Amino acid sequence: MNYRIKDPNLAEEGKKKIDWAQVHMPVLFNLKKKLRVNSPLKGVKIAGCLHVTKETGVLIRTLHDLGADLSWCGCNPLSTQDDVAAALVDEGTSIFASRGVSNEQYYDDIRSTMRIKPNVTIDDGADLTVEMHSSSGNLTEVYGGTEETTTGVIRLRAMEKNGQLKYPIMAVNDAETKHDFDNFYGTGQSALDGIIRATNILISGKNVVVSGYGHVGKGIARRAAGLGANVTITEIDPIAALKAKLDGFSVLPMSSAAMTGDLFITTTGCKDVIREEHFLQMKDGSILANAGHFNVEISVDALKSNSRLVKQINENTTEYELKRGNKLYLIGEGRLVNLVAAEGHPSEVMDMSFANQLLSSIKLIQSKGSLLPLVYEIERSQDQEIARAKLESMDINIDTLTEDQETYLTGFSIGT
Ligand SMILES: NC(=O)c1ccc[n+]([C@@H]2O[C@H](COP(=O)([O-])OP(=O)(O)OC[C@H]3O[C@@H](n4cnc5c(N)ncnc54)[C@H](O)[C@@H]3O)[C@@H](O)[C@H]2O)c1
Fold this sequence. Notes:
Elements: H1 11-23, H2 26-35, E1 45-49, H3 54-65, E2 69-73, H4 82-90, E3 94-96, H5 103-114, E4 120-123, H6 127-132, E5 144-147, H7 150-161, E6 169-171, H8 176-199, E7 207-211, H9 215-226, E8 230-234, H10 238-246, E9 250-251, H11 254-260, E10 263-266, H12 276-279, E11 287-290, H13 300-305, E12 307-314, E13 317-322, E14 327-331, H14 337-340, H15 347-366, E15 375-376, H16 380-393, H17 403-410
Helix pairs in contact: 1-3, 1-4, 2-15, 3-4, 3-15, 8-9, 8-15, 15-16
The protein binds nicotinamide-adenine-dinucleotide.
């Protein structure tokens, strides 16, 4: 078995963490119990490129127990939990990941993962899928792939539009049981967790500027307000901006928000959202963090070139002293703050995201050869199955339509 990890001796610590996550992921666990009878992944080769965290550890164990042959790398240079990586290698999975890799090593790890010649790719951000489509990829045995996040789905839809996508993709992010829970509740809580772990600041009373009022931005804005912050939203979409205003938040362009914010959190999936002109307007001591997928939302290069002194305050916080004297603090190098400075999303939401990953992978295998190279939506029935299973695990019952109600809701004859 091939692998590249930081330290195999960390395996026991990692196993304890995965065991802890397992307890909080009952949907995935029950699916595994149900599916194991037919070994739906027997002999299937899966290449994964998704944050190596304890929750991903539970997904990897599940895929492994259902018969898959796995090869895995991280999808961010700073998000790998080295003890989890060691545990997974010890349990028989080829892992190519460690925290703090260079860009070159990051892509080497992706290419090592691809050597398995996968039947299915599981991706988060589309770096693996794009690399599979390059000269180093071998597509001969691929049935299809899945994509975990908004930015990855956007990239793959662009490939589809340009006629460059060569195998079908299940857009896991677009499942309601994914983005309405993982992006909203998951990032909402874990992004603030990361900021607090990195700085220990009091959120209450702070002016928090959240860029983007989509699924992630809404979740963070809501949690920050719950902790007592004054929240301002910046947006480019008039509908999202209007929703933010009517949800009770201030809405400003970044050029104005830059002057008043104490803490800035980007969640847009766009680039250069906070840039040179904004840094120059910011108050002394402002803190910057990004929760969008790539480290392009805060223009870190411009921050560097406008600074006369750069100092590491702690593992995840860097002080930039601007030429005019003000100090700005960047968390996690502008990479996903919840994964770099905290542990990623809570297990309870990853339970549903990864149940979607599992069922989507099985769907690709069952329909091999019959799907076109397009980005596919997740079927409503899959979303409903996962939501029902989650409710069941929480001991929550809901109502069912009577026959009469069903007729009413599907007819037109009864009006005023
Ligand atoms: N940190 C995590 O763990 C995590 C989890 C899920 C998603 N993500 C990532 O977070 C990002 C956002 O995901 P989402 O699901 O909320 O997407 P979304 O499409 O629901 O929301 C993005 C919002 O940002 C706005 N926006 C775009 N460009 C902007 C700009 N220049 N300035 C201000 N607003 C702008 C859009 O109008 C939209 O309302 C993506 O990169 C996604 O991959 C991260």
